[in-house]
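From the pipeline queue, job 12 of 40. The input is one protein chain; the requested action is below.

Action: predict structure.
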Amino acid sequence: GEGPAGDPLARDADRQGKPVFRARLVPNVNDAERVAGKRVLAFAGIGRPAKFFQTLLDAGAIVEREIALPDHHRFRDGEVDDLIREARGKGLQIVTTEKDAARLSSRHLEDVTVLRVSLALDNSNDFAALIADKIRVAPPPSPAPSGRPLPSGER
């Protein structure tokens, strides 16, 4: 990605003659449509929650409340109930990341909108060609020595 962390790495790789590919996270079209124009309470327990909040804004959501939690935050039922209650009380749609949704109970998922994202490479054809080339030139795995039975997991 671009920014303070990615740019120096990309420059170093480029100087060394290594291929550099740029990518960005793009929201799922259907999920983005569900938040576009909506007033939302957004919560995220990921490494860079501000990036999630910006993705919501880019999708057209009106982010009225941002709740940034620590990465890998373990949600307590009462905590999520409080968030849902707050959102309802303010007439807001509650939205979180797919990663955070995986840590919510099924009863909470009924009330929470999940904004899924996927990785979009800026030049996916070049990336695919590089991978295909590396697969073609990879040496085949060496066979097991004669007379030695293969462990059960390798049969």
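Job complete. Helices lie at 6-15, 29-35, 49-58, 77-89, 98-101, 106-109, 124-137.
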